[in-house]
Write a structure and sequence with these properties.
The protein is of the alpha+beta class. It is built from 13 helices and 18 strands. It is 32% helix and 26% strand.
């Protein structure tokens, strides 16, 4: 039997376990992204440094190297790229470019939501020469964002026309369109939901509470904790599944990952923020902690073993018995002089992993190429009360100071349910 050769698009730290598991299964692994020293490349059989958006170059590599499968996850950009590369290289994939656009281009997505009667915050296109007129249908405060950006860049909460005028060029620079989007600001509870379509049937992997904090009223709140399982699982589970299934059918995903971010409150019910053809990064490990399910294994099954994928998901229970959470610490730009309090705070029994992206002497930076967080923690507990206690300990105890004693870590607050 010929050995499978798998192209893994993306080589950052969240792909290391995927490469290792692929090799453990006996697959020949090829890792490709635009970064010379991506961590996952050190474990691959072969690696290329090519920008993931260079479809033709990577498709050529796939053909010349005899690649017979391709996978990526965890970011909208990577998901879009594997769909395009698979199409160009003649490789099997769970989606096709012309339909996948509905999960990448926000104006198309909003049109799809309207056609399918999916509840979503009212959204309008805003052009530079008609901001005041365009914004009337949404009002203030509103969320303004690029039309097809990624990575939460260029997203703000603004409450007047002047602020939009001042930020318009910056927001539009993250998109390939010359207009931006504005949508009604929703203040309900937020959720991340990960699912898999298998043979046209929807299986839910997880629903998490997506909790946020704010350091600047004009900037969209940053994620500080994703907690599994959601406190409101019983309330949102079935209506959320109905929405995801409709969208999956619309875009033609018969067997493949599909995730949703949404809001909920008792008055308006579910309001969908966005639906994506991928899983959530820097979070999928929590599924493993809460259920024992290997997300990396599911991704590999997606490429080569749909029968195993279906068997695993059919026996999976998204109403986890173990509580887990990812805590994400962000910070101001500056050089860390003292991280001792943070090092002390993470030394607790509930801690599974504390990953420091910056150490003493390092400079925290923002913008393109910046590290995703200052610190990321994964914790587990037997119940939500214990999980919350550990979270409060970390939120109050993690401090990093510059040479003048200024706090660099953004303030994190607990969500009130």
């Amino acid at each position: 039997m010929q050995q499978h050769k798998l192209m893994i698009l993306g080589g950052m730290d969240e792909f290391v376990e995927l490469v290792k598991e692929a090799k453990a299964r006996g697959y020949n692994t090829v890792v490709c992204d635009g970064y010379e020293d991506s961590p996952a490349k050190a474990f691959a059989d072969k690696a290329y440094t090519i920008d993931v958006r260079d479809t033709d170059a990577i498709a050529k590599v796939c053909k010349e190297d005899g690649v017979d499968g391709i996978i990526a996850s965890f970011s909208d950009l990577l998901a879009e790229c594997i769909v395009n590369i698979a199409d160009a290289a003649g490789l099997p994939c769970y989606a096709v470019p012309e339909r996948f656009r509905y999960l990448r281009e926000k104006p198309l997505m909003k049109g799809m939501f309207a056609e399918l009667d999916v509840p979503t915050p009212n959204t309008v296109k805003v052009h530079k020469d008609s901001i005041a007129e365009d914004i009337k249908a949404v009002g203030f405060p509103c969320v303004v964002k690029p039309a097809n950006g990624y990575g939460s860049r260029g997203i703000y909460i603004l409450d007047n026309v002047k602020d939009i005028e001042e930020r318009f060029d910056e927001i539009a620079s993250y998109s390939s369109f010359d207009y931006i989007l504005a949508e009604r600001f929703i203040n309900g509870h937020e959720f991340n939901m990960m699912n898999w379509m298998i043979d046209g049937e929807l299986y839910t992997l997880s629903i998490a509470d997506r909790e946020t904090s704010s350091n600047d009223p004009t900037v969209i709140p940053y994620v500080t904790r994703c907690a599994y399982p959601s406190r409101l699982m019983d309330v949102v589970y079935e209506p959320a599944r109905e929405i995801v299934k409709k969208v999956a059918d619309y875009v033609g995903i018969k067997t493949g990952p599909i995730s949703m971010q949404f809001f909920f409150d008792e008055e308006e019910g579910i309001q969908v923020c966005e639906i994506a053809g991928r899983l959530f990064g820097y979070e999928h490990e929590l599924v493993t902690l809460s259920s024992g399910m290997s997300v990396e294994g599911l991704l590999l099954d997606q490429v080569y073993d749909h029968a195993s994928l279906k068997e695993k998901m059919a026996s999976h229970d998204p109403f986890f018995t173990v509580n887990s959470a990812g805590l994400y610490f962000h910070g101001d730009e500056g050089v860390i002089a003292d991280a001792s309090k943070a090092k002390e705070a993470v030394d607790i029994p509930e801690m599974v992993e504390a990953k420091f992206y910056y150490e003493e002497g390092d400079e925290i930076k923002h913008g393109v190429g910046a590290k995703p967080y200052v610190l990321r923690c994964y914790i587990t507990a037997e119940d939500r009360g214990a999980l919350d206690e550990a979270t409060e300990h970390l939120f109050s105890g993690v401090h990093m100071l510059d040479a003048d004693g200024k706090e660099l870590i953004y303030p994190d607050t607990m969500t009130d349910y």
